[in-house]
Design brief:
Length: about 200
């Protein structure tokens, strides 16, 4: 195998690293630090929940991009049930927040699995073993290259699916807050800033 090609492959692999797992986030376990109240509703939220739960691969894309995954806690003491999608408006700097779906969120921050196809560059790798006066060649690259590519692509895809499912499972807009109850969830917003959030009644 050409030495220059081997050096290129090794450097590429060092830069790539392996596909990252997604660590499931439970919004009720988040430490909320931002709280405001309006008309009997206590609204708490937290940015950077991906990083807080060690999903650093996703968090780095979120911080560089135009979307934010926000942990949300709402306690209702208004004397009536609140249907979040119908009754509340989420605000940022006194302007309505642009809410996006979990699918759009995933498209922004998901792992790019196709980059792991570069592992196929290992396919020409040969192992040379001297047996007496004879040198035998084993095409170990045909095993190592495709195997690494397959397992990393499958791992990245699985992590992306789990991330989207986690967000869907705790979609705050799908919830109703009964009087006296507290609900937790996620809000996906299109924003490049970490400016303060709030709510108002529609």
């Amino acid at each position: 195998m050409n030495h220059k090609l081997l050096v290129f492959i090794l450097l590429s692999l060092l830069l790539l690293s392996c596909a990252a797992h997604f660590h499931r986030i439970d919004p009720s376990k988040i430490q909320y630090t931002n709280t405001n109240s309006i008309e009997g509703l206590n609204f708490s939220y937290r940015y950077n929940v991906l990083q807080e739960f060690n999903n650093n691969r996703y968090a780095s894309k979120e911080s560089r991009g135009l979307v934010k995954l926000v942990g949300v806690k709402i306690t209702n003491t208004s004397g009536r049930d609140i249907i979040i999608r119908d009754d509340l408006q989420f605000m940022q700097n006194d302007y309505p927040v642009e809410i996006i779906s979990s699918k759009i969120m995933r498209n922004f921050i998901q792992q790019n699995s196709t980059i792991y196809l570069l592992y196929l560059l290992l396919s020409p790798l040969q192992l040379y073993v001297q047996d007496g006066h004879e040198i035998k060649t084993f095409p170990i690259g045909l095993i190592i290259g495709p195997s690494l590519a397959f397992f990393n692509i499958a791992g990245a895809h699985s992590a992306n699916v789990n991330m989207e499912k986690n967000i869907n499972d705790f979609d705050i807009l799908s919830k109703t807050v009964k009087d006296g109850d507290t609900v937790y969830g996620f809000l996906c917003i299109q924003s490049s800033s970490y400016d303060p959030l709030g709510i108002k009644m529609k």
